[in-house]
Amino acid sequence: MLVVQKFGGTSVGTLxxxxxxxxxxxxxxxxxxxxxxxxxxxxxxxxxxxxxxxxFSKQPNPIAMDMLLSSGEQVTTSLLTIALNEMGYPxxxxxxxxxxxxxxxxxxxxxxxxxxxxxxxxELRDGKIVIVAGFQGITKGGDITTLGxxxxxxxxxxxxxxxDADLCEIFTDVDGVYTTDPRVEKRAKKLNTISYDEMLExxxxxxxxxxxxxxxxxxxxxxxxxxxxxxxxxxxTLITGEDVSMExxxxxxxxxxxxxxRVTLRGVVDKPGIAADIFTVLAEKNINVDMIIQxxxxxxxxxxxxxxxxxxxxxxxxxMSTLAAAKHIEYDDQIVKVSxxxxxxxxxxxxxxxxxxxxxxEGINIQMIxxxxxxxxxxxxxxxxxxxxRVLHNAYQLEK
Amino acid sequence: MLVVQKFGGTSVGTLxxxxxxxxxxxxxxxxxxxxxxxxxxxxxxxxxxxxxxxxFSKQPNPIAMDMLLSSGEQVTTSLLTIALNEMGYPxxxxxxxxxxxxxxxxxxxxxxxxxxxxxxxxELRDGKIVIVAGFQGITKGGDITTLGxxxxxxxxxxxxxxxDADLCEIFTDVDGVYTTDPRVEKRAKKLNTISYDEMLExxxxxxxxxxxxxxxxxxxxxxxxxxxxxxxxxxxTLITGEDVSMExxxxxxxxxxxxxxRVTLRGVVDKPGIAADIFTVLAEKNINVDMIIQxxxxxxxxxxxxxxxxxxxxxxxxxMSTLAAAKHIEYDDQIVKVSxxxxxxxxxxxxxxxxxxxxxxEGINIQMIxxxxxxxxxxxxxxxxxxxxRVLHNAYQLEK
Lengths: 400, 400
Prior knowledge:
Chains A, B: Residues 263-343 form the ACT domain. By secondary structure, the first copy, chain A, is α/β, with parallel strands linked by helices.
């Protein structure tokens, strides 16, 4: 039995929390399992380091930035290793590089290419608990990389896949995945199971329990994922193949994403290849375009809308200004994305209607709509964010 | 022309100081030289990390401790690299591992075994300023090591040797090497040149400008060393071969070491091999024994005295308790070592006499005496520390 346990920033946020985490790890080790632990930086540390880097430059050298940021996880890895050894459990700490986590060289947003697990396997054979610094890897050329925000989840899932772990436990400071954010709707319910696909849509729609890429990877590598609270022993939420959650649930959750900005291009010349041009240029800048909607236009032109993360809006503006394709561009960061997610949506009609009716009844205007098989997302004015979540949560009776 | 510049903790102690350091490096680069920079952690950071580690354990796992401590230099390396790039000077930051600094596996006190300079040389050829995290290396097995306190100096000197640098500049917050500590004797004078050997004796006698091992290594590798103040443009002190400082100076400085503790073994059986036994056991624990003095005893027994660093006294006590060799052991950490250093002492008699007379006149009792070709050290009661330095400084007319 091999368990990978990942502890987020609040779970290692203080020396006391690191001690508690060590005890938690030992519980699992005592149960007879081999344990690989992935840790984030102490909460606040990464932001502090980013501030340091940005003291010198608005766009700090990304290679140096990665070396800077990776130090945060290195510290927690060392401290947890020291704590475990002191408690009588031999442990070894590894940086991403030492753990053999190889990535491409897209610094600050690197992707894991492969993991050489020989060192980890050797340490496990020696009976050691292995602590790995999350969020980081190394290029073939030997430079430190980081995997982007939430990258420690990705480290944990990738390691689980590479080591063929029986279970990957993601410890945070909440009990699991909820039908919606309990701070917005206090009747929100914790889900016991959810499918990869639903979780994916929830994550991309702003539910912050798990990073999107890590769920994608878990699905791809068929990693059994559980998200749990490191502050208690509650059961958590199991994220796994679709069949498990086939409990005739239509909608499993409502997600709110406040981090989107809307870009609308009016009067785009309506000929093939224009959209491709625009999104190719944005992709080259590694801008994460989310929703894309094209409306029918007039006079041989069309309107094109899309959303980007708010912190990439500046870069988007710069990038768009180099394009002659659009007559008028509108930017709006005073919007939010509200999403209804559920595998049941695939096979049931009427789900979307209920959403539109519910929002209309409250006088909430829908600016953009986008749908997938298991998700319906709408863009609405920021001021309606919480109201929209609450009325939808109620409409789909998620409190039950 | 290749210059290695090392900046200590206060020189990179704040974001503003890192900016100032970047400007200093650029001055050198602009002069046409290739530059390799070695940095320490921001002042206070290493102590903070040690505190963190010791929160969990009195004797933290040394492998994890090294990973922990090395993060401090990694941060300053990254920040200086970001600053230089922002100022328009392409720079690359390297951890000790990336810089190819290979060490043995005596964690927290590792010794550099060899340096693979290929990465650094390639970066220099590409016109880059290379920033290397001081104080750290990597074992052949891939574990991070640290070189012990002051290890960044060692990194700088070793890199200077391996790269055949024309000059190794050590930047601190003082102007250079003084005849004695200016805080103790305000008439202390800065020396323009000093020989490796004198510097060695001064360093081992407690002058903190340069770490002992780095001077030894500089001598061995014939590295031209200059210690300078990063807060001004004063000339500094050149540390080099003996001939340069042959200015008929008898004594070049008085050093004070408050970090010693005295161990005295009374009634050691006076037969061959006993001393060897004792010091072998201490060496195995990596305890740095400094002065060793054996007095003639009586009744087939002898007295043996030596000094160890204060922070190794606990370990020394533990270690000595396993030995049956001595009847009575005395420990005293209320002592200091005062040393008179100068190449002129080799060829001039009477130097020692003047010291003994001077101390006697002030009623300062000498507990131990030890001499080398260019140094005379005495152990005296702690309370006389500053007085002893001042009267000796005056006796040898070092203010002139």
